[in-house]
Amino acid sequence: MIRDQSIICFAGEDWWYHHQHSKNHIMRRLARAGNRVIFVNSISMGLPSVSNRDFFSKIVRKLRSYSKPIRVTEDGVVVVSPPVLPFYSSRIARAINRWLLIAQMKLLMVAFDMKRPVLWVAIPTANVVVGRLGEQVLIYQVSDKYDANRMDHAITSNVVAEMHEELLSRADLIYYSGRKLFEEERIRPDIAGKARLLEQAVDYDHFVSATSKTWMQPEDIADIPHPRLGYFGAIEPWLLDQKLIRHISTKRPEWQWVLLGLRASPLEIESLANVHYLGSKPYASMPQYAAAFDMCVLPWVTDNEFVNYGSPIKVREYLATGKPVVITPIFEYENLDGILRISRSYDDFIAKIEDAMTDTEEERAARQQTVKESTWDARANEVSEAIAALLNLK
């Protein structure tokens, strides 16, 4: 593991997002190894349009982040929330943000004794600081098909695409979190030699405890009848297939949907008697809730281009719990069909759930074995070796 390096990570999410993400896991481990790490909370891709019902909730969420401008975690990660203008479609706003970000980051680098950092960029809008922080190495982590996201922000797809292309051309190493986009872009001659797949991983010991130890049921789930179909993660109206859940609820009203996670506004399906939204829960409590599920589900939409490029960490976490897993088709996990259950239609989702109710101990063990070696420690070591090789070349 590399040591005594300065690392600045511009993440696509905030550090205290309700569910730990890949940058959070990796930067924790690099900091524990003796590196100086600054983690920059998402500078955003801009606000959604005013007509979006999540417009004001997203403003409130970001203002809460700004209220904690600098924090040092127990692992030694310096978490910062630099104020910027959320209007990236404007050339003037981008110029102002460049000045704001560079000024703030240089002050932080002096305050925390950081020189010639490794710059890790995981959001296209951070391209404005590239080449201006004296970085030795630029790593670009591509977590999504950014120009296909038309739900979270109002920035035009061509501006996002330009930012993305600039980062691809300037990066020393490009990590793809998702298999689909990696396979599409790695064949490009201009990036083929520096593109790598950095698969999502799992905090295995944490999630395996859902079935390896005995838990007391949380109070807010104890009175919900069985069978319980559990979901944890992002809860957005464009992400969850509400028509699917409504269809299944009509045909199997005795099945209980338990949803855990952060949401900006209520979903229509929350009016259903067998849909239970329990709010966002601490990461530490996820195994306790998973232990109370009968199975884990991922009822994501399949007709959204942005979603189809996703590589949700939660699927590996589901598998680590040992619980049966039923999902809608996602390219990232097609190679695990059979280990988990992938539905091909609304009624097939019902059939897969019914099949999961006859799950065996051998199937549970096979699921856990599938992800046992895919830990965040392994990913951090992989990243450390790649950074060391780049620094040696420099």
Descriptive notes:
There is one protein chain. Mean pLDDT is 91; it is low at 47-51. The chain is 38% helix and 14% strand. It contains 14 helices and 14 strands. It folds into two domains: 6-200 and 375-393, Rossmann fold (3-Layer(aba) Sandwich); 204-371, 3-Layer(aba) Sandwich (Rossmann fold). It has 394 residues and is an alpha/beta fold. The chain has helices at 22-32, 55-66, 91-111, 157-170, 179-185, 204-212, 219-222, 242-251, 286-292, 305-308, 313-321, 346-356, 361-371, 376-393; strands at 6-10, 36-40, 70-72, 78-80, 118-121, 137-142, 173-176, 195-197, 228-232, 256-260, 275-277, 295-298, 325-327, 341-342. The radius of gyration is 21 Å and the shape is globular. The protein starts with 5 loop residues before the first strand and ends with a helix.
Order of strands, main sheet, comes to 3-4-2-1-5-6-7-8
Which range does the strand content fall in? 5-15%
Task: Please give the alpha-carbon distance between the first and last residues.
Answer: 18 Å
Unreliable runs: 47-51
State the helix count.
14
Tell me how many strands there are.
14
Query: Could you say what the CATH topology of the largest domain is called?
Result: Rossmann fold
Helix and strand element order: EHEHEEHEEHEHEHHEHEEHEHHEEHHH
The CATH architecture of the largest domain can be named as 3-Layer(aba) Sandwich
CATH class assignment of the largest domain: Alpha Beta
Task: Write the CATH homologous superfamily of the largest domain.
Answer: Glycogen Phosphorylase B
The SS-based structural class is: alpha/beta
Report the helical percentage: 25-40%
How many strands, what sense, and barrel or not for the largest sheet? 8 strands, mixed
Number of domains: 2
Give the overall shape.
globular
Overall pLDDT confidence? 91
Q: What is the gyration radius calculated from CA atoms?
A: 21 Å
